[in-house]
Write a structure and sequence with these properties.
The protein is an alpha+beta fold. Among the domains are: about 1-10 and about 30-75 and about 165-285, Outer membrane efflux proteins (OEP), CATH 1.20.1600; about 75-115 and about 120-165 and about 335-370, no CATH class. The chain has helices spanning about 5-30, 40-50, 50-70, 165-235, 240-275, 295-305, 310-330, 375-415, 415-445, 450-485; strands at about 35, 75-95, 100-115, 120-140, 145-160, 280-285, 335-350, 360, 365-370, 485, 490-495. Strands 2, 3, 4, 5, 7, 8 and 9 form a seven-stranded antiparallel beta sheet that branches. The radius of gyration is 43 Å and the shape is elongated. The two termini are about 80 Å apart.
Length: about 500
């Protein structure tokens, strides 16, 4: 008995071989892939992420500023030279009503050592000025006078502000807070990056899993197609079963192609995020399994309140406000400045005899700023700053409350994951048994191809659900790790990430 082929049969066969060829091309391109673990992806992303690089630049900037401020607290040495000065001027003396001509030639240099005093915001300096001067004066009807001599002035100067805040100490403290805040920001960016990369890593993993499952479906469908084809040719099954079998075969091949395209797209997004070359082929490596992790909720909340970097940043913001309050209070302030100078002065035509008869030249000065009336400007600014500080403290308390809520929510979510995983595993086992049983029925001719395809689809969906359940558990544990800065899988605290030297 010769059976005629339905036109749709030929079209489906042509489509099947075309899709099969495309699948072979995709499989050939996967040869030579680079294995990549989650930790490897994080290492690549850390060196290529713009946010991480920006945080590192901020750290470097404040590090240089802090180093410069600390260097400014050390003794400063400087030398000022005036190697040559000459002038010839004609002047009128009002006292004697005479014109006179003055010619002066001089050379001088000043060596100074200045030391800031961090504790008092004052400064102390040692100065030594050595000069040589030649002065010639010619007065009409009086003749000419000339003097050539060396001069040396050695003196100590002490400057000290009174009744005001220590500006030098505050500047140093602010830079230290900025540097600490920049390091905290880097650590936060590092944890955020870990969450983002982990999520995209598992997205690619799911795409790979979908591809593996679709390839498994294709293998099973191919076997079923051969069985049906042989039975139809032997006259044991109706021609319609062959049409359905070939349609299932073509759909399985198209599913493989779609999943390969989906995997390629997911990989490109992932490689762009971590900063890899888009042309580099990768193969993700991970052990997707889950073991129940014991979590102490009270300990989690307590540890988070002690360790969360966002709370430390809030506290730094409040400390900055205290500095700003000091500046506001210094407006129109009562202030005094004291300057004390002690030194000796000597002059002589012979350089070696400059200090044969020195002259003491002490000096002391006091300047006082006394505010009288500012129309309430200072008090209004102080009140405005106090309101700002109250708002910041309120934000800190609200952050602590929100943090407790987030940790409890994450804890409850983690607790529900293991039962879901157990159910998902059971569903996979049941779907595998159901598929095997109905496959036997299909081979024996007791089940149609449409019904078998439904059982195959059910098995595939249950496998995906299991993978999603495992990934959800991993991501929930990661969220709890970020919220508490404690790795509950390893049962150890998470040290803040430090910038690489």
């Amino acid at each position: 008995m010769i059976m005629k082929k339905h036109p749709a049969f030929s079209f489906l066969r042509f489509l099947s071989f075309g899709v099969f060829g495309l699948c072979c091309c995709f499989n050939f391109s996967l040869i030579g892939q680079t294995p990549l673990t989650l930790q490897g992806a994080l290492d690549i992303a850390e060196s290529g992420s713009p946010n991480i690089q920006r945080s590192l630049l901020n750290i470097e900037q404040y590090q240089h500023s802090l180093r410069a401020e600390r260097a400014s607290l050390k003794s400063r040495f400087s030398l000022t030279l005036n190697p040559f000065n000459f002038s010839n001027t004609r002047r009128f003396d009002n006292q004697f009503s005479q014109w006179f001509t003055n010619e002066e030639t001089s050379s001088s240099g000043t060596f100074q050592v200045e030391q800031p005093i961090l504790r008092t915001d004052g400064s102390i300096g040692l100065f030594n000025t050595l000069s040589w001067r030649s002065n010639k004066t010619e007065i009409a009807n009086f003749g000419e006078n000339e003097n050539k001599a060396f001069y040396n002035n050695l003196y100590l100067v002490l400057n000290q502000p009174l009744f005001t805040y220590n500006r030098r100490r505050m500047a140093l403290d602010e830079l230290e807070l900025n540097y600490e805040n920049a390091n905290l920001d880097y650590s936060i960016q590092r944890l955020t990056l870990e969450k983002t990369i982990t999520s995209q890593f598992f997205d690619v993993y799911l795409a790979q899993l979908n591809l593996d499952i679709s390839q498994e479906e294709l293998e099973n469908t191919t076997k079923n197609f051969e069985i049906v084809k042989n039975k139809v040719e032997a006259g044991l099954l109706a021609q319609e079963e062959l049409y359905q079998a070939e349609l299932n075969f073509a759909n399985a091949q198209l599913s493989v192609q779609d999943n390969e395209l989906g995997l390629a797209n997911a990989e490109e997004l992932f490689k762009r995020e971590i900063g890899m070359n888009l042309n580099e082929d990768i193969q993700l490596i991970t052990e997707l399994d889950a073991e129940e992790v014991l979590i102490d909720l009270e300990r989690a909340v307590e540890y988070a309140l002690e360790s969360r970097m966002e709370l430390k940043q809030r506290q730094i913001s409040i400390d900055r406000s205290l500095f700003e309050m000091e500046r506001v209070k210094s407006m129109n302030e009562f202030r005094a400045d004291v300057q004390l100078t002690l030194g000796i002065f000597g002059d002589n035509e012979n350089f070696g005899k400059v200090y044969n008869s020195p002259t003491s030249n002490p000096a002391v000065g006091l300047s006082v700023n006394i505010p009288i009336w500012d129309w309430g400007e200072r008090n209004a600014r102080i009140q405005a700053q106090e309101v700002s500080m109250k708002s910041q403290k309120l934000d800190l308390e609200q952050d602590k409350i929100q943090m407790r809520m987030d940790i409890r929510r994450a804890y409850r979510s983690v607790q529900t994951q293991m039962p879901r995983i157990a159910i998902a595993r059971k569903n996979v086992e049941n779907a595998e048994r159901t598929y095997d049983i109905n496959l036997e029925r299909y081979i024996n001719g007791d089940l149609s191809g449409i019904d078998l395809n439904q059982f195959q689809t059910q098995l595939s969906s249950k496998k995906i659900e299991l993978a999603r359940s495992l990934i959800n558990y991993k991501t929930q544990l990661l969220d709890l790790k970020i919220l508490t800065l404690y790795d509950w899988e390893k049962q150890e605290p998470v040290s803040p990430a430090l910038p690489r030297k």
